[in-house]
Design a protein that fits this description.
about 150 residues, mainly alpha, about 80% helix, disordered N terminus
């Protein structure tokens, strides 16, 4: 663990910060690239390759940054999860999963309405992004302020 003015930061909290940062950067890059490609009808916008590359790059970036963070603080972090870490992880997953469900229901509704694939894929991607962000924020807040129960 290392000291950051406000206290000692656990390795699992660092992982939440990494996941949050990578998720935000990856999604913003995707949005910028796709929005620059819009020319007339949104449904005709080429998005598949950009989406796949942004998701793949975010996964690789998260792994690399986590390895760097783990290597930089391995001696003081103790990398072991305790009961508090497990409860915070569960809490973050529960908060984040709500947006996965919302995204799934939204995508199903859009498919039933026979909306263009562009909108369905982007609704699912947005739901995954919001799930990652809210789950990470929930973990960070839980590490900083404790669990709400």
């Amino acid at each position: 663990m290392f000291y950051t003015g406000g206290g000692i930061v656990a390795f699992q909290e660092k992982r939440a910060w990494v996941f949050l940062s990578v998720s935000v950067v990856g999604y913003l890059v995707y949005l910028v690239v796709v929005l620059r490609r819009v020319d007339g009808d949104w449904g005709d916008t080429p998005y598949v390759a950009v989406m796949l590359w942004s998701i793949g790059a975010a996964i690789v970036a998260a792994i690399v940054v986590e390895m760097v963070v783990a290597g930089a603080g391995a001696k003081e972090d103790g990398l072991q999860k305790d009961q508090r870490d497990l409860e915070i992880a569960r809490f973050g997953e529960q908060v984040g999963q709500s947006f996965v469900v919302i995204g799934g229901v939204t995508a199903m509704g859009l498919a039933m309405l026979e909306v263009d694939h562009f909108w369905i894929a982007n609704a699912v991607y947005l739901a995954f992004f919001l799930s990652a962000v809210l789950g990470s924020v929930a973990r960070i807040v839980a590490y900083r302020r404790g669990l709400p129960w």
